[in-house]
Amino acid sequence: MEQLWLTIKFLLLGLFQGLTEPIPISSSGHLLIAQYFLDVEIEGSNSTFALLVNSASLIAVLIIYREDIKRLVINGLKFFKEKTPETRRDFMFIVYLVVATIPAGIIGVLFQDTIDSYLSTIVTVGITLVVTGLALWFIRNMRGQRKDGNMTMKDAWIIGGAQAVALIPGISRSGATIVAAMARGINQETALRFSFLLFIPVSFGGAVLSITDIVNDDNLSTMAVPYIMAFVGSLVASYFSLKWFMNIMAKGQLKYFAIYCFIVGPLVVLAWFLLN
Questions:
Q1: Are the C-beta atoms of residues 230 and 11 closer than 8 Å to each other?
Q2: Are 35 and 42 a contacting pair, CB within 8 Å?
Q3: Which ranges does the record mark as transmembrane (predicted)?
Q4: Which residues pair with 146 in a beta bridge?
Q5: Helix or strand or coil: residue 137?
Q6: Burial letters 155-185, b for 16+ CB under 10 A, else e
Q7: Which residues pair with 186 in a beta bridge?
Q8: Angle, vertex CA 135, rays to CA 176 and CA 62, nearest 5
Q9: CA–CA separation, 76 and 87 (whole Å)
């Protein structure tokens, strides 16, 4: 019975992570909230759990954006032989993705342990959710006109910097990058695509850095079934959540996520003070 409950718990956590990963409300922040207020602890290695659920979200992104990825790869390689406007646009889009990955990569390597030690708290999440809400509210009515071919190196650095800030729990990675892109006058479709294609190298890099911890996870064999259920739950939830979010973006309804953050953030802080 205990093993069954453990498996159900991990399935629910996987579903929860997958649901919140694509939408701009911070999956890491919400996992902290769930674990704190539901008194849930992740047995085994946190790195193993994080790798599995993030990898599941990565697979969902790869499935949904497979045609864009295919086009970028083909045209990116073609650019070295055929320098047409189309191949140049896609080649530069790849370059911008690489550049935008750098800030979070550097900050993550240098300060991730410090962030985890000092900022992974419920109070931090409550405050940063409000910050996320303010950022979303700021760009809620923006309708940029710039598309893939109109992006610049400055755009890439700014969006990359926003992604680095999102290493703080409660700051949504998708929200930060989309806000930065739209604030630069980039249209919603391109902002969304760039944000989630940018998730690919970040997620892959995080997986590589976690390999050692996973190999040394003493609970890997006994936790196999719960880990698998977390992976499956995250994969399914990430896929449908991202599809839903793409529809929300097309309708320009980001304000509802801002309102959600304005409500949940203060409630989390208030609840923490009442319980401590």
A1: yes
A2: yes
A3: 44-65, 91-111, 117-139, 191-212, 224-242, 254-275
A4: 186
A5: helix
A6: bbbbbbbbbbbbbbbbbbbbbbbbbbbbbbe
A7: 146
A8: 25
A9: 6
Q: Give the relative orientation of helices 85-118 and 66-78 as an angle to the nearest 10 degrees.
A: 120
Q: Contact, 112 vs 167, CB < 8 A?
A: yes
3-state secondary structure of 186: strand
Burial class of 23 by CB neighbour count within 10 A (0 to 12, 13 to 18, 19+): buried
Tell me how far apart the alpha carbons of residues 226 and 232 are, in angstroms, rounded to a whole number.
10
pLDDT by residue for the chain (276 residues), tens only, comes to 677 777 888 898 899 899 999 999 998 888 888 877 766 666 544 667 888 898 999 999 999 999 999 999 999 999 999 999 999 999 999 999 999 999 998 998 898 889 888 888 899 999 999 999 999 999 998 988 999 989 999 999 999 999 999 999 999 999 999 999 999 999 999 999 999 999 999 888 777 766 776 777 777 777 788 889 999 999 999 999 999 999 999 888 999 999 999 999 999 999 999 988
Matching residue, tokens 């704190």 = 36
Shortest CA distance to 42 belongs to which of 73, 80, 71, 11?
11
What does pTM read for this prediction?
Answer: 0.92
